[in-house]
Amino acid sequence: MTRVALLTREFPPEVYGGAGVHVEHLVPALAPYVDVDVHCFGAPRSSAVVAGAYQPWETLAGAGALGVMSVDLAMAAGVAGADVVHSHTWYANLGGHLAKLLHGVPHVMTSHSLEPLRPWKADQLGGGYALSLFCERTAVESADAVIAVSAATRTDLLAVYPSLDPARVRVIHNGVDTNTYHPDPATDALARLGVDERRPYVLFVGRITRQKGIVHLLAAAEHLDPSVQVVLCAAAPDSEAEGDEVRRRLAGLAARRHGVVLIEQHLPRPDVVQLFSHTAVFVCPSVYEPFGLVNVEAMACGAPVVATATGGIPEIVVEGETGLLVPLEGTAEGPHDPRVFAADLADRVSRLLADPAGARRLGEAGRRRVVERFSWAAVARRTADLYAEVIGRPGGAGGRRR
After folding, report:
1. Looking at residue 397, what is its pLDDT?
2. φ and ψ at 37, to 5 degrees?
């Protein structure tokens, strides 16, 4: 059976973002088709599929992107014997590229987002942002295949990297475990988290980062019916300044309306499922979202969705069928007129709040769409087919150096 070395920053129990969730579910779904060895960042894992867990070199600990690159070097050395290498995010992409050169095996990379379209990361990474751009570009332009998680991401890839051969870019959407993400009638987590189940609530789930647009949702919340709760499951700020800004805005909002709930810790998945299952409206106000997995998770739990019409989101949320889309006039850095964007968000959310029966129908349709189109079995099957294709090409694993 084909042996795949999968390179990733995140792997359980250290999962904090959409790319980590993707890898967490892709690995077991691939088991019927290939043998997978996971190489990840962080502490040693007890999982039988983890072949290596790596820390930055001691001399580069705390050196940011240089420390990341030291892990990539170690990963490249550790994947000997693999038939194909598959990397996820810029953190591991360089490791996949170096493994391709060192061991003569094909490199497949999944583009969960594009570094040049996230310029605000320079505030977080400083000069390391230039290194992240280097790692991604080097891998993209040399990979045997690039998986785009949406058609919109494929378009972005070909625009940002014009030397990339379009034939090497395949769209394979993210998936969701519909047995894990499903409507849950229980409400015990709501009370524990400070949410009043007797009152409708609007829900946000995501990291505190400019990309996720949380500040625009807070502005929109000023225009919502005061009887509606605003529940923000928001953690892992990109920077201390961003975390402070969100808390300051939240404090101001809470001073003007009752029922503002901030949940800053990473919740167990069953708690998140309960939040999705009982929300009146799930809101995704992202200004940049190559795919938008959180929308799939919310829809799988029967939540009606209001989301920005950007990136891959319109491939998930069908206007008027599973939710409502909010136009975004602007760039990946944000809307040209934040006040207009916030007002449009508030308008769509208010429409659903005023029509609970209609919102419920949207949620039910969303669940059906997820079950039909976004299963992990389908994602894994298409990914395994791509592995076989790149291995079979001239110069693939069959002809690699030994």
Report:
1. 53
2. -110, 120
pLDDT at 402: 39
Q: What is the distance between the alpha carbons of residues 287 and 296, in angstroms, rounded to a whole number?
A: 17
> Is 184:301 a contact under the CB 8 Å cutoff?
yes
Please state, as a whole number, how many other Cβ atoms lie within 10 Å of the Cβ of residue 273. Answer: 22
DSSP classification of residue 14: B
CA dist 266 and 5 (Å) reads: 28
Give the pLDDT score at 401.
Answer: 44
- Between CA 31 and CA 207 the distance in angstroms is 30
What span, in angstroms and rounded, lies between the C-alpha atoms of 180 and 186?
14
| Domains parsed from the chain with CATH numbers | 3-175+375-399 (3.40.50.2000), 188-373 (3.40.50.2000)
- What is the b/e burial string over 306-339, where b = at least 16 CB atoms within 10 angstroms of the residue's CB? bbbebbbbbbbbbeeebbbbbebebebebbeeee
pLDDT along the chain (402 residues), means of 10: 97 91 95 98 96 96 94 98 98 98 98 91 86 97 97 96 97 93 97 96 93 95 96 86 88 93 92 98 95 95 97 96 96 90 98 98 97 91 97 67 42
Euclidean distance between CA atoms 378 and 134, whole angstroms? 32
Which two structure tokens, joined as six digits, stand for 144?
A: 């045997």
Q: What is the DSSP string of 159-199?
A: HH-TTS-GGGEEE----B-TTTSS-----HHHHHTT--TTS
| Tokens describing residue 89 | 């995010």
